[in-house]
Specification:
Elements: E1 5-9, H1 13-24, E2 28-32, H2 36-56, H3 65-70, E3 72-75, H4 78-82, E4 85-90, H5 96-106, E5 115-118, H6 126-129, E6 138-143, E7 152-157, H7 163-175, E8 179-182, H8 192-208, H9 214-229, H10 234-240, H11 245-260, H12 272-285, H13 291-311
Parallel strand pairs: 1-2, 1-4, 2-3, 4-5, 5-6, 7-8
Antiparallel strand pairs: 6-7
Helix pairs in contact: 1-2, 10-11
The structure holds nicotinamide-adenine-dinucleotide (NAD).
Length: about 300
């Protein structure tokens, strides 16, 4: 492992997180970016962030922040970045055209031992690797922001990705402390966003219907479903809330069906007047200019939750 190398292509927010996660797992990490000055900035940011995590007690891995930072190097040549890597994580902006271009540029350097993952949030890998020689070595490994504290990674194979490649990615991600799930095939939104959008849809419709304030809708999650879901998922919840999941269905299916039949079709999401109205309300506690501060607040809490989940 000490010699194993990970290549990160694109060194923005997500690329930097991946670099820190693999360095905590004691991998050598090389980051590449189209802008050399961005590589320099990313390396500085990684060093400072690891040092901050160390002083806040939330650094991952068994080595010091300085040792982890020393494992991360920068590179201004894509071929050089991929050379000798066993795993590549692409983290360029979310655009089919750009990802297609970057994967075409990577193709000559991909070997039969490499796994090449895209961090893509929504775009399936088949949308941009169809013409590549090494398309069978590619897949989606979609992290959740901030991946350092939210461990889920969605692995989504392309139609030509063999199970060994998917399994290799999963084993590596587990080994560095992430929590991967594997989809059997491509589907729009993967799993997390399919679930997330169904939640947002209902929140949006309830708000539009004037049923609850924005604050109270969010509280249903933060003080209701959220704490539960941090430990048990919706299916296990059904299992535990009755004498097993079959008993739950017998007891509650009709009630659930009655509720579900009142659901409205998906809203035209983010219609501006409703969004503006929500903004007026949310601004009272979190003005837009305070969003960066609130993000730091979020990360501190997610870090504490991750530590708690490890401890208990
Ligand atoms: P970002 O804009 O912060 O970083 C993208 C980086 O890619 C930049 O440093 C940019 O200079 C670099 N880049 C642009 N063109 C390039 C090229 N041709 N070759 C190499 N590097 C290039 O974006 P991000 O938020 O880190 O997102 C990266 C990917 O991760 C996207 O696909 C995004 O959907 C996905 N993702 C983002 C989040 C999130 O919350 N930000 C969460 C999960 C997944």
């Amino acid at each position: 492992k000490a010699d194993a190398k990970i290549a990160i292509v694109g060194s923005g927010l997500i690329g930097q997180f991946w670099a820190m996660i693999f360095a905590a797992g004691e991998y050598r990490v090389t980051i590449f970016d189209i802008y050399p000055e961005q590589v320099t900035k990313a390396l500085e940011n990684i060093k400072a962030t690891l040092s901050r995590y160390e002083s806040e007690g939330c650094l991952r891995g068994n080595s010091s922040a300085a040792d982890q930072a020393a494992l991360v190097t920068g590179c201004n040549d894509l071929g050089e970045c991929l050379k000798g890597a066993s795993y590549v994580q692409e983290c360029v902006p979310e655009s089919v055209e750009l990802k297609q271009k970057v994967f075409e540029q990577m193709d000559p350097f991909i070997t039969e031992e490499m796994v090449v993952a895209t961090s893509s949030s929504c775009i399936c890998v088949s949308q941009f690797v169809g013409n590549l020689k090494h398309k069978h070595r590619t897949l989606v490994a979609h992290p959740v922001n901030p991946p350092y504290f939210i461990p889920l990674v969605e692995i989504v194979p392309g139609p030509w990705t063999p199970v060994e490649v998917t399994a290799k990615a999963r084993a590596l991600l587990e080994q560095v402390g992430q929590s991967p799930v594997t989809l059997s095939r491509e589907v729009a939104g993967f799993a997390l966003n399919r679930i997330q959008y169904s939640i947002i849809n209902e929140c949006w419709n309830m708000y539009k219907d004037g049923l609850l304030t924005a604050e109270d809708i969010d509280r249903v999650m933060t003080d209701g479903l959220g704490p539960r879901y941090a430990f048990i998922g919706p299916l296990e919840t059904m299992h535990l809330n009755a004498d097993g999941i079959v008993d739950y269905c017998k007891r509650y299916a009709q009630g659930a069906y009655n509720v579900c039949s009142t659901f409205k079709p998906p809203p035209i999401l983010y219609d501006v007047p409703t969004a503006e109205q929500m903004l007026q309300e949310i601004q009272k506690t979190i003005p837009v200019e305070k969003v960066p501060e609130r993000r730091r607040w979020r990360d501190e809490r997610l870090s504490a939750l991750a530590a708690l989940k490890k401890r208990i």
